[in-house]
Amino acid sequence: MSSIALQALDHNQCIVYVFYLITRLSALCEPLLSQLIHIHIEGMEKLISSWYNGQTLPESYIFPLDARSGNLTTAPSRDNIPVIDLGGAKGGDQTYVVNHGISESLLNDTMGVFKEFFDLHAEDKANLYFDDPKKSYMLSTSSGYFDLEDVHLWRDYLRHPCHPLEECMQQWTQ
After folding, report:
1. Is 0.70 topped by the overall pTM?
2. Can you give the residue ranges of the Non-haem dioxygenase N-terminal domain (predicted)?
3. pLDDT, tens digit, for every residue of 78-133?
4. Assign residue 26 a region: left if phi > 0, alpha if psi is -120 to 50, beta otherwise?
């Protein structure tokens, strides 16, 4: 995706864009992350996608009932985050959000970049893996405190900040 397309986003659009990427990434990740199963690079063996066989759920990923997110009753208020109309969500095994104001070409470019990233060889992604949650740009798993957690979050993620663009672009890999 070009930096020109990203520069056209204001702060609110950037938040919506990142939210959209996160929701779409979950649908994209399943087939692409299966390519990471045989990664044996130091540090990256913690990535779920490098070891999960689809057969059993490890105990270290099962939260006690009282710690599960279903117990939340309120969400913090954020006046500057635009409302996204989820009433128009459609799809069978995937959810598509409509009326979000993000162009189809930007979405397609973004999905193309995701595919390029996950198609990289493990060696090319290894320099992005960090256990330090203070890093602004990183590929990691769980919450970033993996070795300190009793129960881990079931996720691998790529943190890729984009606001303010001028500062963030200096940290992006080529």
Report:
1. no
2. 96-170
3. 666 666 666 666 655 556 666 677 788 888 898 888 778 767 777 777 777 777 77
4. alpha
Q: Mean pLDDT, the chain, as a whole number? A: 68
- Tokens representing residue 90 in the block: 């459609």
Structure tokens at 22: 């996160």
Q: Which residue has the tokens 């995937």?
A: 94
Helix axes 104-119, 11-33, angle to 10 degrees: 40
Dist CA 71 CA 76 (whole Å): 15
> Which whole-number Å values give the CA distances from 23 to 20, 94, 130, 132, in the listed order?
5, 10, 23, 24
Q: Which residue has the higher pLDDT, 45 or 15?
A: 45
Distance CA(141)–CA(34), nearest Å, equals 15
Cα dihedral angle (155, 43, 127, 159), rounded to 10 degrees? 20
